[in-house]
Design brief:
heterodimer, A: 351 residues, alpha+beta, three-stranded antiparallel β-sheet, two-stranded antiparallel sheet, 13 helices, 7 strands, B: 324 residues, mainly alpha, two-stranded antiparallel ribbon, 14 helices, 2 strands, globular
């Protein structure tokens, strides 16, 4: 029962996080590709309650940043005019969920600009890019995991159900895929596909590549489940009544793999989000100006950025809750499957 | 003995299989190294055609594979178009650097996680154990990329460690002892990144395996005999829990190899990772195939080592293969 509750809790937390990313247009103050060329590499603005004169304000506010005199990349706060943070105000037009035309933004300031996570080299708001980038990266993870599980399910069930030469052939191939370190395999597949393509094509390309990499482990697990499932009494009874292979697989055997698939999904999705990040970080994934979690960080490959603009690293802090959610989900699912019990105490699961 | 030969043969076929697989991948490639050459107005089309013929890129796949296999047996592993040299010597230097990183990280990660896991299993459910569980969970949810970049940011801002490469500019002028010191200094950052990324999984598995054994009756009996705690934990409990951990060893080698690919590129460690990246971007086909093959070789080697360890640690496997 407790396990069940933990599962629901993690699921709700993840749903909230993903909801924020899906509705990025509402939560982000600006468009992800909108440039503010006069303000490159702006550090994160601080939220204030007390102004320079020591007066307290009821509403949190920010100061605009201006160049410090005599420098070309050092900013300081312009304390002459506070800009109160307003909620639910009209901003630039966007399409919620890709089709609903909207103008309402969760927060923003009037007659100035607010950059809570700073800006990048083109003066684009890092927070907005982070939220919109999440759409790309998380969708890549979800779809990639979907493809993997589909391949794993079909390969595993064919190998497990029919056995014989099909089984040995498929499992040998699976062994080959398991013999490669997964990142090398990912690179190998990516290496031989076109490099310079448009954002949309690149997106589907890397989803296909990522999805094709990890099928071997789920296939093995599914095979194991199918092997034991097809010998169970009710399955044999159904076969005795003349059920066809297709009916048996669809009706009796594949439903039994659902818990394995669910657990695998919870493990695979964050891993694939990470894979997309790695590819895009190295310039092999989704190209600029479309934001993704990987190319958001890619400016950190430059030494000068590392030295001077530490806030370019901040987005990683925001990504952690997503990974935490998936880890929690995976371990609560595993705990449901097999609980390591020692002296009545649960040791917890291994992920 | 028979068991080992069997594993060795298995590893060999795996390598052959992976090489065929990676050659099959190459047919997916939409272009070759020479396509970009053709766009260069300074190179005559006849020249490109001659080069294509010389390197046999137009031949059918089986022919190319056969000639590549031939060159493997001559210790060349194909030819790098970009470096204009055989692939094997190029790869060997890089592979050595990657191995240096991965082996150090593997040893260090296990040296830390074994005592930590045992220590935690002994205190199962108590405060230190729970704190450690929280710590490993925290490490687990930080993406590898963020970990490596974070260490880099830290190094740059503190200025304590060199932030890239494998050697300082004046490396050649240093005395042997200082050379070693320089190398170690450069290794600290990438090795830390690798160890931190591998550690949580290892600690958790060690803890669970040892905790499982600790409740066994034979250990209760051992406690009753008054065997000291340390002996109990490390001479009795750990060997009994070793079986799943040895399998995990092979797995950890693979994970660390993957991790090292990323860490090498991020921290510009001159290993297989940056070379592979370069080769992918310039479509230097045989270097990519070679790099993949080397990584497979390491992983298969790690698994073979795990098999050996298992053979040595588990009498059941020894007798089983002896009886057959």
């Amino acid at each position: 029962m407790i396990v069940r509750r933990a599962f629901t809790r993690w699921l709700v937390a993840l749903a909230v996080l993903h909801g924020i990313v899906v509705c990025a247009g509402f939560f982000a103050p600006y468009d992800p590709v909108e440039q503010d060329r006069k303000n490159p590499y702006l550090p994160p603005m601080r939220l204030h309650l007390a102004d320079a004169h020591g007066h307290l304000h009821a509403r949190a506010f920010v100061y605009s940043l201006k160049l410090r005199e005599g420098s070309f990349d050092q900013y300081e706060e312009d304390t002459t005019e506070p800009h109160p943070v307003k909620f639910f105000l009209r901003g630039a037009r966007y399409r919620l969920l890709g089709f609903l035309p909207c103008q309402m933004r969760l927060f923003g300031v009037e007659n100035a600009r607010i950059y809570l996570l700073g800006t990048d080299a083109y003066g684009r708001d890092q927070l907005s890019r982070l939220l919109f980038g999440g759409q790309v990266s998380l969708l890549a993870g979800l779809l990639g995991a979907g493809i993997t599980l589909l391949i794993g399910l079909s390969v595993g069930s064919v190998a497990g159900y029919f056995g014989g030469w099909r089984d040995s052939l498929l499992m040998r191939v699976a062994e080959l895929f398991l013999a490669l370190p997964w990142l090398y395999l990912l690179f190998a597949l990516r290496a031989f596909l076109p490099l310079a393509v448009g954002p949309l094509k690149a997106f589907f390309l890397i989803i296909a590549v990522i999805g094709a990499v990890g099928w071997a482990r789920p296939a093995r697990l599914v095979r194991g489940v199918v092997l034991s499932a097809k010998e169970r009494d009710f399955v044999r009874a159904a076969r005795g009544f003349g059920a066809t292979n297709r009916y048996l697989l669809r009706r009796h055997i594949l439903p039994q793999t659902s818990s394995v698939l669910l657990t695998q999904a919870a493990i695979l999705i964050p891993q694939y989000v990470l894979a997309e990040m790695t590819l895009s970080f190295l310039g092999l994934g989704v190209p600029e100006p479309v934001p993704s979690w990987g190319n958001l960080l890619s400016s950190l490959q430059q030494y000068s950025v590392l030295v001077s603009y530490w806030w370019m690293y901040l987005p990683t802090v925001v990504m952690v809750p997503f990974f935490l959610g998936y880890l929690g989900l995976a371990s609560s699912l595993q705990e449901r499957g097999e609980t390591y019990k020692i002296e009545g105490r649960s040791v917890g699961s291994l992920t | 003995m028979r068991y080992l030969l069997q594993r060795l043969g298995h590893a060999f076929f795996l390598l052959i299989g992976v090489s065929i697989l990676s050659f099959l991948f190459t047919t997916l490639a939409p272009g070759t190294y020479f396509d970009e050459m053709r766009l260069n107005p300074q190179i005559a089309p006849e020249m490109v055609a001659a080069l294509r013929a010389q390197y046999g890129v137009d031949k059918p796949l089986p022919v190319r594979y056969a000639s590549w296999l031939n060159s493997v047996f001559h210790g060349e592993m194909g030819f790098s178009f970009a470096y204009n040299s055989p692939v094997a010597p190029l790869l060997l230097v890089r592979a050595r650097n990657t191995l240096l990183l991965t082996i150090t990280a593997t040893l260090l990660a296990w040296a830390i996680s074994l005592p930590l896991g045992v220590w935690s299993a002994e205190r199962l459910g108590r405060l230190p154990d729970r704190l450690l569980s929280w710590g490993t969970a925290a490490l687990m949810v930080i993406p590898d990329l963020a970990l490596a970049l974070g260490l880099l940011v830290f190094a740059v801002r503190s200025g304590w460690f060199p932030t890239g490469g494998m050697a300082s500019v004046d490396f050649e002028t240093l005395s042997p002892l200082n050379k070693l010191r320089d190398l170690v200094l450069h290794m600290i950052l990438p090795v830390t990144a690798l160890v931190l990324s591998a550690l949580p999984l290892l600690v958790r598995h060690v803890r669970a395996a040892v905790a499982d054994v600790l409740s066994a009756p034979f250990l209760l009996a051992a406690v009753g005999h008054g065997i000291p705690r340390r002996t109990l934990l490390y001479r009795y409990a750990l060997p009994a829990a070793a079986n799943p951990l040895i399998s995990l060893f092979g797995f950890s080698v693979g994970a660390l190899l993957s991790g090292s690919l990323l860490v090498e590129v991020v921290m510009s460690w001159p290993g297989l990772g940056p070379l592979l990246m370069e080769a992918i971007l310039s479509r230097d086909l045989y270097v990519v195939v070679g790099g993949i093959l080397f990584s497979t070789l390491f992983l298969v080697g790690g698994n073979l080592l795990a098999d050996l360890l298992l053979f040595w640690a588990d009498p059941r496997i020894r007798t089983e293969s002896g009886a057959r």
